[in-house]
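Two folds, back to back.
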Amino acid sequence: MIELGGNIKLIGFNEMEPAMLIVVKKIVGNYAKKISTTTDLKELSLHVKEVHKTASANQRWELQAKLSTDSKVYAADVTDFNIFFAMDKALSKVMSELAKEKSSPIHDLPSSHEEKE
């Protein structure tokens, strides 16, 4: 496991090539920065697994992203042939779930005592 800044965890990335790991850290760091502007980021974890590893270049990656905030946990699971595309899709899904929660119309409804006035 690799920890970045205390609240970001990368699981399964230890055996990755150093050049790929630099790109992974950059992508995760950019998403973490975006997420922290909208909510209190408690923990962001990415867990990667190689699926159907073969000698050919058609290797598939399964990536699980989990975002923990003070109020809720958001998760996404993506499988792709490109690790970077998988990361982008998973982190985008988590961010869109967070955005839906933040813009929920439930918070804009009047309370029951306001309706009676």
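---
second:
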Amino acid sequence: MVPRRNDKPSSRPPASASLAFLKQLLAEKGDSEIRVLQAQLIDAATDARKWLSIAQSEEERHYVHKVQVCLGNMQRILDRVRIQHRIAPGSLPSRTTESNWSQNARAFINALGGAEDASGHVFGTHLKRLAARLEEQIKTSAKLPDPDAAKGAPNKRERGPDYQRIQKRVDFEDKLVSELGMIQSKISVTASINLALLKREFPDFELWKLLSQQQQEELLTEDFKPRMYARTLAMAKFGLTSRETIKKDRQRLRKRTKF
């Protein structure tokens, strides 16, 4: 099954984090660095177009198309930024523009990871190069104050992994894997199954809260891999940008149980 999900993070990043990247480019290097980034986007779009033409599966084509959509959105954002900068030198991008850039950067990284999982590789060199730059942007933004601190959360905690958060992500993905596996098994042995019967038999499934009506119906008509689809949904739930995060969570938990 092609997971049709919302690639946006589940919670909006703090305004200061979303403002950091484009604002810093303009403040430090002006319009020239924006042009460099635009060239990277064009090169990445060329690789994505070639990749789509040779994609082998519907799932791979779906994710590559999502990559193209994000690249197009980011190109249009930079076009607007350059026009604004030429009209009013020294002006900075609006909060909405910065937020849109941040969301599309995260969605691009998610979609590229999905395409790589589906095909086993990334076509060309420009897509990975751009993803590395955007990931660095996100890491830089993550060093800014945690938005939870404004709600009275402690500013510091003991060094080391946050095992409570790690366990929560792993448990959530495991629950989705189990639910998707049960649905897949039910469909394979019941020819006349429909969505209403599934929801009546499994009324407490977390999936019904996460998926739209169309996505729920697609569970009956499209092939899917429970583990891969659960990972995609868990990433969207927790606002993760890398498919490796929960994999590393599991490694940390296994390592912890050895001591």
